[in-house]
User: Fold these one by one.
Assistant:
Number 1:
Amino acid sequence: MSDPAAHVVIVGAGHAGGTAAALLRQYGHAGPITLVGEEPIPPYQRPPLSKAWLKGEADADALTLKPLEFYAEHDIDFRPSTRALSINRGAKTVALSDGSTVPYDALILATGARAIALPIPGAELEGVMFLRTAADAELLKATIGSGKRLAVVGGGYIGLEVAASGQALGAEVVVLEREDRLLARVACEALSTFFKAYHEQHGVVFELGANVEAFEGAQGGASGHVTGVRLAGGRVIACDAVVVGVGAHPNDELARDCGLETARGVVVDLDARSSDPSIFAIGDVAHRPMPIYSRMFRMESVPNALEGAKQAANAIVGRPQPPGECPWQWSDQYDLKLQIAGYAFDVDQILLRGDPATAKFAVFHLQGDLVQSVEAINSPPEFMMGKQLILGRKPIDKGRLADPSISMKEVAA
Amino acid sequence: MAKITYIEHDGTEHVIDVKSGLTVMEGAVKNNVPGIDADCGGACACATCHVYVDEAWRDKTGTSSAMEESMLDFAENVEPNSRLSCQIKVTDALDGLVVRMPESQH
């Protein structure tokens, strides 16, 4: 492509879309850029919403990726509070909710994912919340606080981060998890056990194997403000607010409706290009190849958003793609820094390095003598070197890896 | 407010007024200065905001925490004046600060 006058339209002004717009300018793209976002504010970072921002340690200015003026100064036509309604691939246009139709030479879909709602009675009650957007976080922050009882449905990373932040704000927090352990879909048992104990030390209460049947309201039913969560069997957990964190669903309807190849997400190649060569998909909505694991999947993380933005921007301006990547993500809870490198695909052994009792350890997921993934708690060397080992496909000596007295640099040497 | 000079690896200079309270990393990222990636947005989780602090400013920018040291240890081309720019808070006292960027953050 690499047409310097090409009109690039970006649908979705989250971390991925906002980054793509900025990178296109940074890489010297001279043509028009239109950035369309549903939210009323310019692109911002979502991770702090459940952490520093919720605890009042970061303000709205700190959240934004770039100040609002940036978009005008860099000739990016940013259209907040605007939805894309449909894509006409033949005419190469996007119809927007403000009534306009925007032509594109290249279209980047960065529509993200939405929080999954529980299809149960009372889901519409006031005080039953999600945590996805800055507006969600604003509402949650105004609702929880000293002495309030917060029920968190879902013991995944979002749920645990909200629990930690809620606890820090003085709320009484109970986490309701359907599975018999926390982080069941995303982490190994050692990590689940560790996080549960750590949160309990900070006063969080857990209900595992909890099947949430309904949310109950003040007026004895499905209206007004939430007062409790009813579990299967009839027991009711009283609360003043609920946060539902049970996963997200990709916003791939625009792509489906115009006939792009999708698979719970928009199917793309290593240039972030979809089955239509003029349309790209990045961030949470992309179902993309990950060569180190010889498979395709969808990820929800900032590093994934950034990688997709780089791939699409590079492909559009005709720059070479960066070298191979090792996907990674992080989570902060209390004074714990969790850094995860890779995904635990095709693992035949889990190896612990360090002692969980010290809150400084790492869990390595191995396939033979290759590292597939590492979960590092307060252990940057294990994370940083783990990333290199995953990417380099370099065999390691398991005995040495399990011995924390041997430094990671020596283990990898 | 502090005037900070960011110098890219190829010598390109960017002089930016950065509000007190932001970090040196945020000053670069919010103004689209290339060369500081800051993938994690300042959580000290990625070591992609590595800079070299001008010798004259090393005292005023303080010392790095154990976590920062530990992350920096795995960055490329680390020097004694290396810092993660997300861990340097901007104050009026940093007016005139000069930082240089490494060739690559990855």
Number 2:
Amino acid sequence: MSDKALYLDYEYCSGCHSCEIACRNELGLGLDQWGIKVIEEGPRQLPDGAWHWNYLALPTELCDLCEGRVAKGELPACVLHCQAKVLEYGTIEECAAKLAAKGSKAAIFAP
Amino acid sequence: MAEWKTEVDGETIVRSCCWSPPGCHPVGCGVRLHVRDGKLVKIEGDPEHYVTKGALCPRGLAGLEYIYHPDRIIYPMKRAKEDRGKDKWERCTWEEALDLIETNAKAVIAEHGAESILVFGGTGREANYYYSLIAHVVFGSPNSVYAQSGWSCYGPRCTSTGFMMGGGYPEIDYAQKFADRYDHPDYKAPEYIILWGKEPLKSNPDGFWGHSIIEMKRRFGTKICSVDPRITWLGTRCDDVIQVRPGTDTALAMAMLNVITGEDLVDHDFIDKWCAGYEELKERVKEMPPSKAAEICGVDEEQIIRVARAYATARPGSIGWGLAVDQNPNGVQLGQCLIAMMGITGCLDVPGGTILGVVDPAQVQMDASQGIALRYGIMDEAMWNKRIGTDTFPAMTSFIPTAAPDAVLDALETGIPYFPHMGFFSSSNVIGAAITAAPQRWYEALKKMDFNVVTDTFMNPTAMALCDVFLPVASYAEHNAMVLTHYGFNASFFGAVNKAVQVGECKSDVEIMLEVGKRMHPEFWGQYEDDTAYNEANGLNGKLTWNELAQAVTIPTEEPYRKYELGLLRADREPGFASPSHKLELASSLYAYFGDDPLPYYKEPPYGPISTPDLFEDYPLVLTTGARTYVSFHSEHRQIPSLRQVVPDPLLDIHPTTAANLGIGEGDWVWIESPFGKCKQRAHVTATIKPDVVHAMHGWWFPEEDGEEPNLYGNWKSNINVTMPHKVNGKMGFGDCFKNNICKVYKVEE
């Protein structure tokens, strides 16, 4: 089992879909598959009037955290191309530290 | 820094900056193009690009699907004039295509004069740089045409800037001109940004790297206000969203100036030294207290005051102004207000404020074209004066070297002042849903032309309906070129677009211009052996060889701040601004010279509840259009599978209450009908838009449908521009109703 993970600051994931297409290019997937998929939650107005609207870039079972790229010293394709630079790669421990530092609206995925 | 070209495991990797095609504005995002056996096998973001740092948008990432798409046109084609509208294209050689263009153009010139040739451009693609050159210097015609009613994209903002102060295009400072970016010792991040009628994440407008907004927000905690009729995702991350009634923005901006001047939140040193007309402006905006604007705009008075104070007291504040400034007949007054807000708060061209560009005329090639044509005798003054629309639209045509778009449609329809006879569509899908108002009228009028040429990458409605010769354009990966953000008006860097592969017989915009130019005016164009020679002599202005730029990939301009102090805004290099008084003219002498008010004023949108109450009873919704998506650029990319999957259909945003009243559910096809025309899109029911406003997408056609007449790839099905009126512009001729029309919406009954 890998001790690596993806950290996502979903406060600022802009839902641009770059990760999806970068991942498909890397894994050679067709249109019916995703190695990472952007999930949209909202937009919806909360009882206090504030807006709830989050995107979540969610890795799937096909994600191998770009083992091949990482072995060559490159970043995973989704991390490199993320326009908002909200996806990061590291050990589970490193990612947990980032999550702790951020404190809210962040997640770690160990696919 | 990595070499610009490396060999790894049998692959050549070329570092480059992408521009177009496929379309985008000149942002010049960094890419690494992987080539194997002469074919692109992968496109990646370039982690060493100092602005984009490896990030790449879906359009960039889907590049292979575009470049090697089976429907892409990669050889020249011709078609008999009587077969227009039919899929009877035949492949031909470049020689044959060029022969046809030369023969027909020379015949048209002999019979009707060079002025009867129209060269169309648009979109923000690289072709934008060259269409005026093609008109003026290749054909000797004064009539380059950006066909959007009221020149309502970028032109109005540039004109307001040019009239009031000169100095390129004001842009948010995201340290884009410095190689060390945010670490540059002179840099300070904006504390507060107003995004006015602009959603930069999706639009990357004119060279602004949109996601830098997120970068600054995360890194520096920059506060943001979005002025937008819609709550966008970015809006939900903003400190304020002013959900303005479409087209009323000038009232809002005047009210903010009312607060800023009334509460004396201004920089008196800057005003005393560099501005003219402050007292007059202060007096004028007294007419628009926040309470009045709140009523006009349908927003909260307190919010106007709060945002005005937050912006004016930020050190510094910055403004990103968007397309909504242009697509408004009252827009040049809005531009005036926003420039005043940048100036009087002391936030103009200071670190973290709204920065200006050093304009080097040699780099702004679309401005230099008529001068070249006149100097080389390709056009004489009499010919230049035949430019269509100079009489009706003098403010526009004195500043912008094209014909006036609305006057061109009039000429095509009426023959006044004369009938045009030939069209050259330089990557411009004129009858599509992305540029002209009333495209159905342009379509009928352009059918009468004797001869039409199109340069593009895919067959599209304009090419299929109207054209006789199709010249295939090379994508950014297939040619050498230079990219300057803001077309050079406010450049962050010189960027190299480095050729990695050849596809079919495609040629770049410059190569096409050279080829046709050598046929029409070899005495001028013969001096350039190829595109590299042309780029070195012109874009690079002799300062840099092509190889130097190619290898550097990006060369930041490293321009200093406060250019007005340093004499960098004026041609004579004296301090001050490039206005008649050499001040920032808050009361503009050039606005007055061209018959407009020197000071900003508010005017209701031409159609709406106040201006046309009777009509509004039948068309009771305000229609705003054209918000961008991540997966298309205007009418491009509809045939790219992984992009179309993300947004498969044209969508109309409609509020749940309004939808319920009309019996409309999510995904229903609905008619959107204005007094001028109708089309259908699918309802997207969302509370992010107010109940009395709907938003429709632009740029829709259906490449998968029958391309022949009358269907033309479904060009008329969802074409929102058919609902737009022709020639409804402001006093100086700018602005249109693309963002402030009226309509009714009802379910499509099968």
